[in-house]
Amino acid sequence: MGSPLDDVIDEVSRALEDRDFQEGLMRSGLNNQKKVAEILSRNPEILEAAKRVAEVKRESVGRLGELVEEAVESLRRVGANPYYAETAEDAREIVGKIVGRGSIVVMSKSMAAEEIGLREYLESLGSEVWETDLGQLLVMLEGVKPMHNVAPAVHMTRERAARIIRDKLGIEVDPSDVEGMVAAVRQFLREKFFKARVGITGANSLSAETGTIVLVENEGNIRLVSSLPPVHVALVPIDKIVPTVWDAVNVALVQAAFAGFWMPVYISLITGPSATGDIEQIKVLGAHGPREVHVVLLDNGRMKAASHPF
């Protein structure tokens, strides 16, 4: 067995020899660079917003323990169930108990879930787990790790994506028809959304003041993951916590701009479970969205890192 460094060298060597991989990176990289440059050129105010976000994040890291406590109190106040996971193992076990065994689970793209190996853990408990972000689904079906935190399939050409859809989902698609490939995956996933008992998301940010989860996206899958299943689990790294809901929204908007999406198609603000009070002003949980919202605050070394000066 080789050392971890040997494994890295082997992976790099394979990537350098994979022409399809290189072509996919080149196409995606050039497209993204152009988009971000155009966005910043047309909207110079984003750079000022980014500076303010950087200040908020620095201040938040400086008082992370205080913000975690405030977030826990706020989440409880709005009817969500907060948990503090000190380690990756703690987080997996917490989510595993919520999900149970043999459930159908849909997930939005989450680097925190990738960090702790959540999908694989839930599968080991007998659950059927589906990634719903198109790029993350392709990566899952191919059995590899995501290549980028925003665009997990950034290395894939359309030809490679078509092969994966055909071989893993049994759906014939035309590699030249990207819209057709997206439509095929959309139709396949619709059944999973409606059958799922649990939807798992990450978070772009979390307001300590209000307990509001902010999620930004273009595909629309996060809205379905967080609203169709009766149980919503949000896995939120504690460094995503900022003081106010305005801070949380600004963080998400700046992230979207520098990812090449402006304006983002969807911004979701989730503050506790779905509810209605339309009959005699009596609050009933689980109107059209989830009856339960569980928020797992993931430490996994972040609090220790925050205690060290920049």
Automatic annotation (TrEMBL):
For this UniProt record, the keywords arranged alphabetically read as follows: 4Fe-4S, Iron, Iron-sulfur, Metal-binding
Reading the lineage from the top rank, the first entry is Archaea
Supply the Pfam families for this chain.
Answer: LUD_dom (PF02589)
Positions of the LUD domain: 68-298
According to its UniProt entry, the protein's GO biological process terms are: lactate metabolic process
Alphabetized GO MF terms = 4 iron, 4 sulfur cluster binding
Coiled coil regions in record: none
Q: Which PANTHER family match?
A: LACTATE UTILIZATION PROTEIN B (PTHR47153:SF2)
Q: What is this protein called?
A: Uncharacterized conserved protein containing a ferredoxin-like domain
